[in-house]
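Recap slide: Branched-chain amino acid ABC transporter permease LivH, sequence and predicted structure.
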Amino acid sequence: MEYFVQQLINGLTLGSIYGLIAIGYTMVYGIIGMINFAHGDIFMISSFIALAVFLILTSVLGFAFLPVVLLIVLLVAMLFTSAWGWTVERLAYRPLRGSFRLAPLITAIGMSILLQNFVRVTQGARVKPLPPQIQGGIPLMDGMTDAGPIVVQISYMQLIIIVTTVVLMTVFSLIIAKTSLGRAQRACEQDRKMAALLGVNVDRTISLTFVMGAALAAVAGLMFLLLYGVIDFYIGFLAGVKAFTAAVLGGIGSLPGAMLGGLLIGLIEVFWAGYFSVEYKDVAAFSILAIVLIFLPSGLLGKPEVEKV
């Protein structure tokens, strides 16, 4: 039981990071029907920005109070990552919006490769480490296993990740449900042409959607850096594939579905690695995705598309 609870905490933590990245996929797809395959690399860039800002503040400027340092790092990472997201949408996707459906998809793959290699050339291919900054945790229970005594605890970093994810999910749900931007996004999701005729600035709404998704990716990037303490130019591809899988599993286009899918992918990976074989954890996650889509083609919370005649 103790081992199960510890793996549950680990899975929720990993799933929270996947869920934050998956929201960016599902928001963009919900409005313009495009899979932004470069979104995982936006997440990767945010990790590098966070690491660079953290080192500048602590090593160069001499800041020592960690909460203030992390807050500044988060704000700067969100600002620059949002600018990256806006630039990618403005230069790569907007000119192709009226083109055939494969054109934006090919461009997204090209942008992903471009961003990966840009970081590899400018920052190097070696991993970039960061010593643990937030240590300690809250013991929950202890017990015995076949390998010896075990203490179940939730680390402060895991607690921060889970709480931050819940808060951001609540805030973004309120933004989409209660604000004028959210109404514009829902109008564009239903019918972009009609929304434009009714006065909605479609281009501005889509750009802000990319900015919001990139900001969430920046939060996930900082949390990934603090949790694992090592990043490289390839983490965006792996996390992006997992987050896209989570968005499809939960129902792409559904905000709660993206978060649910992220949590499920994280739990499947952690439990499979903990109880079976770590080499096959990805196989397990994608196999369950395939099984779910066989019986629920729209995902767990997705709505089937109704074609108007």
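The mean pLDDT is 89.
The beta strands are 128-129, 137-145, 148-155, 230-231.
(End of recap.)
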